[in-house]
Write a structure and sequence with these properties.
By secondary structure, the chain is mainly β. It is 3% helix and 34% strand. It has one domain (3-222). The model is unreliable at 215-223 (pLDDT under 50).
């Protein structure tokens, strides 16, 4: 079992092409993968989706030189890996923005899973193992006649600093071996500063190769 963090930064100066930022150092390296190396488990770790209140010291996370080649599911001998997602502002002013984050998983294709077993997502909602192909981290919609009701930074907010962010636990990986499309989008609204009242949007589409046994967990439980 491994615990991974996918780190994505946004800058309003890089908003015209809709891409998250690239580069940076330490915990503010964007479009970068980290692995948890601290003792025990990080705060907010869960089998299912939720907000992460505190990421912990940067020393607890090791920057990987490349994305993980494999993500192991609960059906693999390695046990199920976990995934965190962190959105942060590379301009160093997270309190200026509110953010709505959406994650979408696409149906995988793999040699060990038949069409009857194909899942739209390697993550599940609850112990009933209902797949979660769309994870809308913030469920409120646009406000009427004003700013949308999206959250300010949700992680490491006491006090809000340049390291504050929007961080979520996506959950533990489940299901058979397959390759998944993994799309992350962030809608951003400037509540103050030079760009007050402006909207921005950022997106990226990494991939996930899940290694499992060819069965869903509930099928193995039933057997």
């Amino acid at each position: 079992m491994s615990i991974y963090l996918y780190n994505l930064g946004f800058s309003v100066s890089n908003s015209m092409n809709g891409n998250f930022s690239s580069g940076g150092t330490g915990i503010n390296a964007s479009n970068a993968w980290f692995q948890y190396i601290g003792p025990g488990t990080p705060m907010g770790l869960n089998n299912y989706q939720g907000v992460v209140p505190q990421l912990g010291s940067a020393a607890l996370w090791s920057l990987l030189s490349a994305p993980p080649a494999n993500f192991y599911s609960t059906e693999s001998p390695n046990g199920g890996d976990y995934l965190f997602l962190r959105i942060f502002n590379t301009d160093g002013t997270p309190q200026t923005y509110i953010v709505r984050t959406t994650v979408i998983f696409g149906q995988g294709s793999g040699s060990t899973s038949s069409s009857a077993n194909s899942l739209q997502s390697p993550f599940v909602r609850n112990s009933s193992y209902q797949p979660v192909p769309v994870f809308d981290c913030d469920t409120v919609s646009f406000g009427i006649g004003g700013a949308p009701e999206w959250p300010a930074p949700t992680t490491d907010i006491n006090p809000v600093s340049a390291y504050s962010s929007w961080c979520y636990c996506i959950g533990q990986i489940n299901g058979p071996s397959s390759n998944y499309a993994f799309n992350v989008g962030a809608s951003v609204y400037a509540v103050s500063g030079n760009n007050q009242g402006s909207y921005y949007a950022f997106g990226i589409d990494p991939r996930m190769h899940v290694v499992g046994t060819g069965k869903r967990r509930e099928q193995e439980t039933a057997a």
